[in-house]
Specification:
single chain; 282 residues; alpha/beta; 2 domains; 5-stranded parallel sheet; two-stranded parallel ribbon; 11 helices
């Protein structure tokens, strides 16, 4: 059902919702602001906080979904994103930050170093949770180049202007998941550059990032082998994973192929670091 048809048939019906994690809309400032930008009458929204009965309930359909193992999105999904981007364009305030790196920051081994490398290339690291919705939209609509590790931060590329450049770092080998489909919502120049060494089961929230040969080549830098910080970060990632009981056997090694073998051979010559972290490789 199109938006116009919905408004014609249901504009006077009550809209109810179950608060996320029990938080009413008043406490979810960013989500509330997003609804306001989309011109949703938030005062019609009624939270359901206790068992409630209705004679009829109309549930909205998904606009981003899976069919036969493939993700798809509807025209209404694209329309929603376009409405938000249009708002950002209408209210655009010029900023000097034309290259931004969205920093995830939680349980990401090596991402701080990754962000510093991007910073050396003219990018400004951004912690999005520190900004309001309006501040983030303004940064994104102004950005000429956007970079992030693949995940929720990367999905903000939806709000870049047409044909902006994006640089995505997969969190583990061959992992790009939803992002390529999001790249099709509007024209974007997307680049995927492998710079991780997350070798364990991916069903957790800890990932390992290095400054890889591929990343340096992407920026035209010479690669002279992995540095000591790369090895330290990898060993910290290993030690953390073992300590938290998250690893049994490496799950993603095959995805890295010769890259992982070369990295491990270089690391095996650093007995001082291996002894310091108490890690043994057979």
């Amino acid at each position: 059902m199109k938006s116009a048809e919905f408004n014609h048939d249901f504009k006077n019906r009550p809209l109810v919702y179950i608060p996320f994690e029990g938080q009413p809309l008043e406490q979810q400032k960013n989500f509330r602001r997003l609804l306001e930008i989309l011109e949703v009458d938030i005062y019609r929204l009624q939270p359901i906080t206790q068992p409630t009965r209705f004679e009829n309930i109309i549930l909205p359909d998904e606009s981003f979904f899976v069919i036969n193992g493939r993700h798809n999105f509807t025209d209404e999904y694209r329309e929603t994103i376009e409405n938000i981007r249009s708002f950002a364009l209408r209210n655009k305030k010029i900023t000097s930050l034309n290259k931004i790196y969205y920093f995830y920051g939680r349980h990401q081994f090596g991402e701080e170093r990754l962000a510093k490398y991007f910073q050396s290339k003219g990018f400004t690291p951004i912690l999005p949770e520190k900004l309001t919705v309006d501040e983030q939209l303004n940064l994104l609509i102004n950005a000429e180049v956007f970079a992030s590790t693949v995940g929720s931060c990367a999905h903000n590329s939806l709000f870049l202007r047409d044909n902006a450049e994006a640089i995505f770092i997969p969190r583990f080998a061959n992992s790009i998941y939803l992002q390529p489909l999001l790249d099709q919502v509007h024209p974007i120049n997307a680049n995927y550059v492998d710079s991780s060494m997350s070798i364990f089961n991916v069903n957790h929230d800890s990932f390992c990032f290095l400054i890889s040969r591929q990343l340096k080549q992407f920026f035209g830098d010479k690669f002279d082998g992995y540095e000591e910080d790369d090895f330290k970060i990898f060993l910290q990632y290993i030690a953390y994973s073992i300590r938290t009981g998250r690893t049994i056997n490496p799950k993603q090694v095959n995805g890295y192929g010769a890259i992982y073998k070369d990295f491990l051979e270089q690391l095996s010559r650093r007995k001082d670091l291996l002894n310091a972290y108490g890690v043994v490789f057979n």
